[in-house]
Design a protein that fits this description.
The protein is mainly α. The protein is built from 13 helices and no strands. It has helices at 4-35, 37-73, 77-113, 119-132, 134-148, 153-177, 181-207, 218-291, 295-322, 324-329, 335-349, 352-367, 371-430. It is globular.
């Protein structure tokens, strides 16, 4: 197979997610420098609400993108246009419903996530500007997968880079110059997501289908959401893990442990997003070839994706081990928190190859609409983490909290092999 189409699709996606990964920690960098440990902890406690918005956009966008690509592979133009319309309509509806619903539920959610005392008003000041701009969070993540499926991988990369650069500039301006603190970080994020969204809207208006249906179909809506449940979970599950880890860290290590985990979660997010960039980048190709029933091409694309993801995982491991101290120091945390991070971060670093295996496997499952095989890997993560966080800290206290993440990655990686085997057997039986 010619590898050029693979890298033409994956490299722009990888670069886009690389900037998205740095994007994710920019708020933490500026807030950490300006407000210290408390600001870092507050953002980490509030971030799952932001993550829910991102997951909603990603789930609907990727669910529609997979259906669009498979329809194109089948040369079914009518189905392609219908799935395009349903994807855009569902994103618009989700923007309205989630903004209203989460604004009403924000305070109870923050309390549930563990925001108490001085951390609660800080978490509020980050959450409310994010929710006011919720539509841009959803559309930025929801339109990019659709753009990639209409040969817009380079534009998708450019819009995400533009959003990142805007976020950096506005974080500096709002936090360091105007002294708006944690609220300034949230406002900068909302504006930068708008910068990503608007070019995608223009692109799809010019290059998307013209002849669209007039009303929603329950069957098409269900088809988009059925596929979208996997990428939704893939985006949200790590943040559900953040919620349970925050609560466990707070219980066994106090605010310092939450601040340390905030830095760790930012850094791990970069690697996970890089790996997701590989999986999402090759999705249009895999879905297209699956729709065309080209099994050999699908298999070769999957092999390329695994190889490239493992390369990134091992390269990231080397970079983190070599640059651990200077990487941690840029967050401006106290010496006590920084030393805690340096001590425990290697546990997560050893899990990078496991993350590579899991990200590509789950991306492959939803790219070929085998969602039942993706669900155990995606939604098993927070469930397994909950069980381990109940058991391990009873013996090893705070160390048990940190061990839970590595053990969870190992358990799910072992589960991925039989799932791949049974999925292939099921496909063979059906054909």
């Amino acid at each position: 197979m010619n590898r050029k189409p693979f890298f033409q699709a994956v490299l722009p996606s990888l670069l886009a997610f690389a900037f998205s990964g740095v994007y994710a920690i920019v708020d933490g960098l500026f807030v950490g420098q300006a407000t210290g440990d408390a600001g870092l902890a507050a953002i980490n406690l509030a971030f799952p609400i932001t993550a829910l918005l991102l997951a909603l956009g990603t789930g609907i966008g990727m669910g529609g993108a997979v259906q669009i690509a498979i329809s194109k592979g089948k040369r079914d133009t009518n189905a392609e246009h219908r799935f395009f319309f349903h994807t855009i309509a569902l994103l618009a509806i989700t923007c309205a419903v989630s903004t209203a619903g989460l604004l009403a539920a924000a305070d109870p959610l923050l309390l549930f996530f563990g925001a108490r005392g001085t951390l609660f008003p800080l978490a509020q000041s980050y959450t409310y500007p994010i929710l006011i701009g919720a539509a841009f969070q959803i559309l930025a993540t929801g339109l990019v997968p659709v753009v990639r499926n209409y040969n817009g991988a380079v534009l998708a990369m450019a819009t995400m880079i533009a959003g990142f650069l805007t976020n950096v500039l506005l974080d500096w301006l709002f936090i360091m110059v105007f002294s708006w603190g944690i609220a300034g970080a949230a406002i900068a994020t909302a504006i930068s997501q708008a910068v990503t969204t608007l070019p995608c809207i223009v692109f799809l208006f010019r290059h998307g289908p013209r002849h669209l249906p007039k009303q929603l179909s329950l069957r098409r809506t269900g088809a988009v959401l059925a596929v979208g449940l996997s990428p939704f979970g893939l985006t949200l599950a790590p943040n559900l893990v953040i919620v349970v880890m925050n609560r466990a860290a707070l219980a066994y290590g106090g605010n310092d442990a939450v601040s340390a985990y905030a830095i760790i979660s930012y850094l791990i997010c970069i690697v996970q997003l890089l790996l997701q960039g590989v999986g999402d980048g090759c999705q249009p190709l895999i879905s297209l070839q699956y729709g065309a029933r080209n099994k050999s091409a699908v298999r070769q694309l999957l092999q390329l994706a695994y190889g490239f993801a493992f390369f990134i995982a091992f390269l990231s491991m080397a970079a983190f081990f070599l640059l651990l101290d200077p990487i941690v120091s840029i967050f401006g945390a106290s010496d006590q928190v920084s030393q805690m991070v340096v001590h425990i971060l290697p546990l997560w670093i050893w899990a990078f190859p496991l993350y590579a295996l899991l990200r590509i496997t789950t991306s492959y499952f939803y790219a070929v609409k085998k969602n039942a095989f993706a669900y155990p890997l995606i939604y098993g993560e927070p469930i397994c983490m909950l069980v381990l966080l109940f058991l391990l800290p009873q013996r090893w206290n705070l160390s048990g909290v940190w061990y839970a993440s590595l053990v969870t990655a190992g358990v799910l990686s072992l589960l991925s092999a039989p799932l791949l085997f049974f999925q292939r057997r099921q496909k063979d039986v059906r054909t």
